[in-house]
Amino acid sequence: MASSTETPPTSAVIGLGSMGWGAAISLLRAGLPTIGVDLRQDVLLRLQQAGGVAALTPSEAAQSADIVFVFVVNEAQTRQVLFGERGAVDAARRGTVFVLCVTMPPSAAQDIAHDLAERGMLVIDAPVSGGSLKAEAGDMTMMTSGSPEAFSKAEPAMAAISGKVFRLGDAPGIGSRVKMINQLLAGVHIAAAAEAMSLGASIGVELDTLYKVIRESAGNSWMFENRGAHIVTGDYTPHSAVDIFVKDLGIVSNEAKGQAFPTPMTQAALSLFEEASLAGMGAEDDAAVAKLLARKGKVTLPGMEDL
Length: 307
Prior knowledge:
Blueprint: E1 11-14, H1 18-29, E2 34-37, H2 41-49, E3 53-55, H3 58-62, E4 67-70, H4 75-83, H5 88-91, E5 97-100, H6 106-118, E6 122-125, E7 128-129, H7 131-136, E8 140-146, H8 148-161, E9 162-167, H9 174-202, H10 207-215, H11 222-233, H12 242-258, H13 264-281, H14 289-296
Parallel strand pairs: 1-2, 1-4, 2-3, 4-5, 5-6, 8-9
Antiparallel strand pairs: 6-8, 7-8
Helix pairs in contact: 9-11, 9-12, 9-13, 9-14, 10-11, 12-13
């Protein structure tokens, strides 16, 4: 954190979805000037009410930012907000640190970092994990790689939004490789939790009881504990949507194919998420794959009464 005699760095957060919103609120809570960019006017108004500054475009936000956090969905959106019309890069000062918190192919993170460096910018490849609640608490995990100079400049802001920053090396792309493996495990664990809960319901086990028992048993996982609660209550509010894992497990699958490495668990989970998306659940919470399995097994889970 900057000392009382230093001017704190100004951060811009591009994309105020669940993770970007949590980052912006955490920066403000730490007393750091924060500019937010989003397409939704109601979200920008909430940011202003919390003490932040709303910007209509990435270009506007980057003009006065020392650090630019990018929290959009994918590689294409990242390129658009950085290099497209009214993008951040043209307006940013040389030496601005761009912290790329997007889950994307490692090769894409490397390419974007190279393009930013060519424009005189510093870059940290920094995909994040932890979910919306940890993001809002300033407790997300960051898997990062970048130059010591970039880390030195961005450290106060990164410390404000995260509980743990893993520094994995100097080269962009390393953070994205580690995040890719995290998403493999996360997606497979969600699919396994959905299968377990829906199968339990089909054989007559009361869901709340099953959830409580597994939480205290060897079969538990962070994803079972988190997503299992959604299945018990039938609440599929999208904290992380089905389509996110169609994208993320697609990255794992494609990268593994490039290495000629088998990923049978990834393929099984990816097929389940793809089928759920095609069934109209793409914008629902990723735990909604349980509803797909329950429908196939002719079981009614909470939240399915109107299906």
